[in-house]
């Protein structure tokens, strides 16, 4: 072999070695992929939670097919149905009776029959009405029974039905026909022929039972922006109560402080020069008030939360487990998120925790704004919980769950990824202490929380619904409001009802009141209600009789009847209020859970209002009643369109029955007054716009249960705090040296619109 060949081979060998070293060094610098470690087996999933599970899409379809074949009347798909047709309005789970469920869960009884609740609109009958049927058993229905009279004491009047999408389309067609009667006015006021104006419904619809008369507010509609903050000053009143759509009519027109009998009269006044017109230019997408498009290019990415060894919670079917917690979750298409059978360390704390209603009540000097009292359950809090945006609405690596619903159609729809579950590091100690006397040590625990979240878009507002579970045994419920404000056209003394936030835009004052049902079962079903608060007593100093001292003492009281346990909104209530068990803890105190409300509610509607009884739950920040199967909800989707004769009146639940050692329910109202201001443009922020409540253990345990958390940290001055064996925080530098697997970003939330 020649010397030249040897040198060439040696050179190739050195190059290969150099390349391998570079690869190895590069691999050493690149973080490995995070690997999920197996979770400790907390319990065995036995399918019991499925008794609360939302209907599957196939079950909904089976119910529809059964009803189409067994009711003996023609049924039109609700997406096409006229008011004079019969249609299936919705299909949802019929939650079994609590006694049946507990026999199954706790006593080895039979599994309750799986059933659906179907709501039908019968417009093609001599007496049009709303009827509700229980259909079962699923998945193969064989029977149905009409439960309307049993639930409501009689047939439900047809005018109480929520407005369907098809009805809104027909109303918009009527409005467009009427706008064509004022072409010169529309050109002058809005640079429009009417087709590029958006209409916004108000509610309720009239002044007395039987009315179906609605004010619609018109806005400039610019693609890609929120039209809600671009009113043009024009509002129309439409009567759409007749079953024959051709008989619907426009009753009144409002423009810039004046009322007219028709759009023709409006046009005539304009042509005669007798109308003061505010000439608005068609807004551009890049300068309109409601644009949320970024104004700067993206910067460097912010912090990303990830689990270096995988999620520490489990999601199986409709059940979540996490460090001692077990929760069955679901979504009602009308009222939104609902949780059942909430247990901690194997003990049931809450049987049902569910959203009931969201009220938005407005003030304005325009007719649409001043008459608006939205009851969002009638629009569909759960139905309009759309897909969540990964990395913004929830952490990128959260678990996302699809929800199915059947409303106003015969075909089930799916809101993909519309509920998320994640563990949240709040970057705040749950508890800690640094000892600087006697002995030197540090002990603490991070505040890591399991979060279940959904977000509902209800016309202009977006509500973020959070249910959080802490390692201290506490449950936290919170709602944040964001989205767009609703607005009126600014004229006259508009600032008596809000703030001017644009050239012609009045941000109208309003309140948000949210209602929840909390069926607590604290160490069993039989509970009582106890309050505790502080008082001062003036006593002689035992060691110095010539002096006195103001000594605080604890005043305890057991409330015995429902009337005592109904606490009016905005009136101070006892600082400690607890559901107490007859059983004692180690220290001989009743095992209890405390209700702690965080709220800044506005003023409730005056009780002499003709529609107040329909929202009478809003009278109380807290009301505790005996649980009754015939009082499952505090309101009804039918209250919105007939608030003057409400289908469900919460105030009637409170009838001074005894609440000592009974199965009790806490009904909680939280909320806030919102006076829109310049910083609500383009969007309301969540900061400061969050309210809720806590359910906190109070002598339920013998000590703080979080002491058993594997996340606890303790080290003393005599230990090496940097040693992994002494301090788990010292292990992070190696445990977290991995790259999270982030799935490709995908969003399909526009598919069902």
Automatic annotation (TrEMBL):
Cofactor binding comment, as recorded: Contains 1 topaquinone per subunit.
PTM entry text: Topaquinone (TPQ) is generated by copper-dependent autoxidation of a specific tyrosyl residue.
Domain Copper amine oxidase N3-terminal as annotated: residue spans: 161-258
One matching Pfam family: Cu_amine_oxid
Cofactor(s) in the UniProt record: Cu cation
Domain Copper amine oxidase catalytic residues, every copy: 305-706
Enzyme Commission code: 1.4.3.-
Any Gene Ontology CC annotation: plasma membrane
One of the record's GO molecular function terms: copper ion binding
Catalytic residue list: 376 (proton acceptor), 461 (schiff-base intermediate with substrate)
InterPro entries in the record: Cu_Am_Ox_Cu-bd (IPR049947), Cu_Am_ox_TPQ-bd (IPR049948), Cu_amine_oxidase (IPR000269), Cu_amine_oxidase_C (IPR015798), Cu_amine_oxidase_C_sf (IPR036460), Cu_amine_oxidase_N-reg (IPR016182), Cu_amine_oxidase_N2 (IPR015800), Cu_amine_oxidase_N3 (IPR015802)
Keywords carried by this UniProt record: Copper, Metal-binding, Oxidoreductase, TPQ
Ranges where the Copper amine oxidase N2-terminal domain occurs: 75-143
GO annotation, biological process: amine metabolic process
Organism superkingdom: Eukaryota
SUPFAM superfamilies named in the record: Amine oxidase catalytic domain (SSF49998), Amine oxidase N-terminal region (SSF54416)
Residues bearing the modification 2',4',5'-topaquinone: 461
Region (Disordered): 288-310
Annotated family: Belongs to the copper/topaquinone oxidase family.
Name of the protein: Amine oxidase
Gene name in the database record: Aoc3_1
């Amino acid at each position: 072999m020649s010397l030249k060949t040897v040198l060439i081979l040696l050179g190739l060998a050195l190059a290969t070695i150099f390349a391998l070293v570079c690869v190895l060094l590069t691999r050493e610098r690149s973080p490995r992929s995070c690997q999920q470690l197996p979770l400790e087996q907390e319990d065995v999933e036995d399918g019991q939670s499925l008794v609360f599970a939302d209907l599957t899409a196939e079950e909904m379809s089976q119910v529809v097919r059964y009803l189409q074949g067994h009711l003996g009347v023609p049924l039109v798909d609700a997406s096409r149905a006229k008011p004079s047709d019969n249609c299936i309005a919705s299909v949802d789970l019929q939650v079994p009776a609590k006694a049946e469920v507990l026999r199954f869960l706790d006593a080895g009884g039979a599994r309750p029959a799986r059933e659906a609740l179907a709501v039908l609109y019968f417009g093609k009958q001599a007496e049009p009405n709303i009827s509700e049927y229980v259909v079962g058993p699923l998945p193969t229905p064989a029977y149905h029974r009409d439960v309307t009279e049993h639930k409501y004491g009689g047939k439900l009047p047809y005018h109480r039905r929520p407005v369907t999408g098809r009805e809104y389309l027909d109303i918009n067609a009527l409005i467009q026909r009427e706008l064509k009667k004022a072409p010169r006015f529309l050109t002058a006021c809005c640079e429009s022929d009417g087709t590029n104006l958006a209409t916004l419904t108000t509610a309720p619809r009239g002044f007395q039972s039987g009315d179906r008369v609605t004010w619609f507010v018109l806005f400039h509609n610019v693609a890609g922006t929120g039209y809600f903050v671009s009113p043009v000053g024009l509002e129309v009143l439409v009567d759409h109560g007749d079953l024959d759509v051709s008989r619907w009519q426009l009753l009144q027109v409002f423009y810039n402080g004046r009322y007219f009998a028709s759009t023709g009269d409006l046009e005539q006044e304009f042509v005669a020069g007798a109308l003061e017109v505010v000439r608005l230019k068609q807004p551009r997408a890049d300068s309109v008030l409601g644009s949320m498009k970024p104004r700067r290019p993206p910067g460097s990415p912010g912090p990303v939360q990830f689990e270096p060894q995988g999620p520490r919670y489990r999601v199986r079917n409709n059940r979540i487990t996490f460090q001692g917690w077990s929760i069955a979750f679901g979504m009602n298409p009308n009222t939104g998120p609902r949780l059942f059978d909430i247990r901690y360390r194997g003990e049931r704390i809450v049987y049902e925790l569910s959203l009931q209603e969201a009220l938005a009540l407005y003030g304005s000097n325009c007719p649409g704004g001043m008459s608006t009292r939205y009851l969002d359950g009638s629009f569909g809090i759960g139905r309009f919980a759309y897909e969540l945006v990964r990395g913004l609405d929830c952490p990128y690596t959260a678990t996302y769950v699809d929800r199915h619903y059947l409303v106003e159609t015969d075909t089930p729809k799916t809101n993909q990824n519309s509920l998320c579950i994640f563990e949240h590091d709040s970057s705040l100690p749950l508890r800690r202490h640094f000892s600087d006397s006697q002995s030197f040590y540090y002990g603490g625990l991070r505040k890591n929380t399991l979060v279940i979240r959904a977000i509902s878009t209800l016309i202009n507002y977006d509500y973020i619904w959070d249910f959080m579970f802490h390692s201290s045994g506490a449950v936290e419920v919170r709602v944040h409001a964001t989205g767009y404000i609703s607005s009126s056209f600014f004229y006259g003394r508009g600032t008596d009802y809000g703030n001017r936030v644009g050239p012609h835009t009045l941000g109208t004052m309003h309140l948000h009141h949210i209602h929840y049902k909390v069926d607590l079962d604290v160490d069993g079903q039989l509970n009582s209600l106890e309050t505790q608060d502080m008082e001062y007593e003036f006593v002689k100093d035992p060691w110095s009789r010539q002096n006195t001292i103001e000594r605080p003492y604890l005043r305890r009281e057991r409330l015995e009847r429902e009337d005592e346990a109904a606490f009016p909104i905005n009136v101070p209530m006892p600082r400690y209020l607890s559901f107490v068990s007859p059983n004692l803890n180690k220290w001989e105190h009743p095992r209890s859970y405390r209700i702690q409300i965080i709220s800044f509610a506005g003023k409730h509607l005056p009780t002499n209002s003709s529609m107040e009884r329909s929202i009478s739950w809003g009278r109380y920040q807290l009301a505790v009643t005996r649980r009754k199967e015939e009082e499952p909800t505090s309101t009804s989707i039918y209250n919105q369109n007939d608030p003057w004769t409400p289908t469900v009146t919460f105030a009637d639940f409170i009838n001074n029955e005894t609440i000592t050692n009974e199965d009790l329910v806490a009904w909680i109202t939280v909320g806030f007054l919102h006076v829109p201001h310049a910083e609500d443009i383009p969007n309301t922020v969540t900061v400061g716009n969050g309210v809720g409540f806590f359910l906190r253990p109070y002598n339920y345990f013998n000590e703080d249960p979080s002491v058993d958390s594997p996340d606890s940290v303790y080290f003393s001055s005599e230990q090496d705090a940097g040693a992994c064996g002494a301090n788990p925080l010292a292990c992070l530098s190696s445990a977290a040296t991995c790259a999270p697997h982030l799935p490709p970003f995908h969003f399909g939330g526009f598919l069902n619109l």
